[in-house]
Design goal:
The chain is of the alpha+beta class. The chain has 2 domains: 67 residues, no CATH class; 104 residues, Mog1/PsbP, alpha/beta/alpha sandwich (Protein Transport Mog1p, Chain A), CATH 3.40.1000.10. It is 36% helix and 30% strand. It has 5 helices and 8 strands. The strands form 3 sheets. It has a 4-stranded antiparallel sheet, with helices on both faces. A two-stranded parallel sheet has the order 1-4. A two-stranded antiparallel ribbon has the order 2-3. A hairpin with a 2-residue loop joins strand 5 and strand 6. The longest helix is centred in the middle third of the chain and has 21 residues. The protein is globular. The termini are far apart. The N terminus is likely disordered.
Length: 199
């Protein structure tokens, strides 16, 4: 009887474990920023649902909205404790891009790219190598150079040119392995970025 109870507990624990899928990734030696810095919180990609006995997930809009709001509030509270200036941009209207009132600084733009690589791409190591002003699409924009390593442990280099023009964010990026391929493709990329236009 005792063996049956232990087996039942083990099965219950297994089901509970399977319901939780969380992952945290950070660079080796990563230290959270402190002091005067800015954080832009974009719309989190959150989906919540009910796992039925048949193993089918039934999406729940009310749970999803509540979970998304809680994630935003938690990030805002945590970063505010570190003296950050937090910008909540849950919708495109909140960014100001659609109305042409965007006030994103070069630091905001580069932080957004880094966050996308770390969160969406699962990048474990991300290093900024250069940030400088550049003319892109006839506007004053930002050129952002970086290196990164993702789960395959291959070092890659990247360059992004970005500008907010006409209330919209425009980004053009090149990513390639650091050994040979990035340098080989860079002249063509720079030429394309220099000649790009909004038409």
């Amino acid at each position: 009887m005792r063996a049956i109870r232990i087996a039942a507990l083990a099965v219950s624990a297994l089901f509970l474990y399977g319901c939780e899928t969380t992952r945290q990734q950070a660079d080796i030696g990563f230290q959270p920023r402190k002091g005067n810095y800015r954080v832009i919180v974009m719309q989190p990609d959150v989906t919540a649902g009910l796992l039925t006995a048949g193993g089918i997930v039934e999406p729940r809009e009310d749970w999803t909205n509540a979970a998304r709001d809680n994630v935003v509030k938690a990030v805002e509270a945590r970063e505010t404790q570190r003296a950050a200036v937090v910008k909540i941009a849950a919708t495109n209207q909140d960014t100001g891009w659609e109305t042409g009132n965007a006030t994103m600084t070069p630091q905001d733009l580069t932080s957004m790219v880094e966050s996308a690589y770390r969160i969406r791409g699962g990048v474990k190591i991300f290093e900024t190598t250069a940030v400088k002003p550049v003319t892109f699409l006839g506007q004053q924009g930002v050129q952002f150079d970086y290196t990164f390593v993702n789960e395959d442990s291959i070092k890659r280099r990247g360059r992004s040119v970005m500008v907010v023009a006409g209330g919209k964010l425009y980004v053009m990026s090149l990513n390639a392995t650091a050994l040979h391929y990035f340098d080989a493709a860079l002249p063509d990329f720079d030429a394309m970025a220099a000649s790009a236009s909004i038409g």
